[in-house]
Design goal:
By secondary structure, the chain is of the alpha/beta class. The chain is built from nine helices and ten strands.
């Protein structure tokens, strides 16, 4: 479904990604993990066309997407839950959700407003509140719901549970598990390694802009040196 092939990305004259390669299959959940500042968000922004790729290719659903504007990448079927949530602060919860509504994947049971509110019932009582009045957890639920409203083929979450209360984090992981069970393809970035191991099928570790390891959950759990070498503070 998604193939990132040896991409190089720069900020001005400074290179941030060096030959990054990863892939996600239909229905697969994959992670991109590493310490802060190692290139996780840059990789996401490169996939979404927010930062131009200098070298390499990105293919999604048999279409080359690097070089396309971000809105065309989104309408190709990639839903992004960005770091920091970035909900529209002056729009109500209802308006945030319906602003992006589209059945891009042509689903027979698409995500619509009522379905998102069933998935995140905590948003029901906040429908008319502006995004700026929501708690961090409510904003994250809204950001996920907004991404689902395009009915994406691939859902990307950058720092899925960062800064959230423990109970909210548990709810987010549970909902992501529900999405996986429904066959949703997901790329997730987060610091909660154990939750990622339980959720995901495949993992990529990034260090200084390079993919230095990839493998399954059993392999990651079985090698504690990986956590010490690449994920420890």
């Amino acid at each position: 479904m998604l193939e990132v092939r040896k991409i190089d990305t720069f900020y001005a004259g400074s290179q941030a990604l060096f030959g990054v390669t990863l892939s996600i299959e239909q229905g697969q959940v994959a992670t991109l993990i590493g310490r802060n500042g190692m290139g996780k968000t840059t990789t996401v922004n490169s996939i979404m066309g927010i930062i131009p790729v200098r070298k390499g290719e990105i293919w999604f659903n048999h279409q080359r997407i690097n070089g396309l504007p971000s809105f065309k990448i989104a309408t190709a079927g990639i839903g992004l839950v960005p770091e920091g949530r970035q909900v529209f602060p002056s729009l109500s919860v209802r308006e945030n959700l319906i602003a992006t509504a589209a059945n891009i994947a042509g689903s027979d049971d698409p995500w619509i407003l009522e379905k998102v509110l069933e998935f995140f019932p905590g948003l029901k009582q906040r429908l008319d509140n502006p995004g700026s009045q929501l708690s961090g957890g409510e904003q994250q639920m809204l950001a996920i719901g907004r991404a689902l409203m395009i009915n994406p083929r691939l859902l990307i979450l950058d720092e899925a549970t960062e800064g959230l209360a423990p109970l909210v984090r548990e709810e987010i992981w549970s909902r992501l598990g529900n999405l996986k069970d429904e066959g949703q393809s997901i790329l997730v970035i987060d610091k909660n390694l154990e939750a990622l191991i339980q959720l995901a099928d495949h993992h990529y570790i990034i260090e200084k802009g390079r993919i230095v390891w990839n493998g399954g959950s059993d392999q990651l759990r079985a090698d504690p040196s990986l956590k010490t070498r690449y994920l420890g503070v």
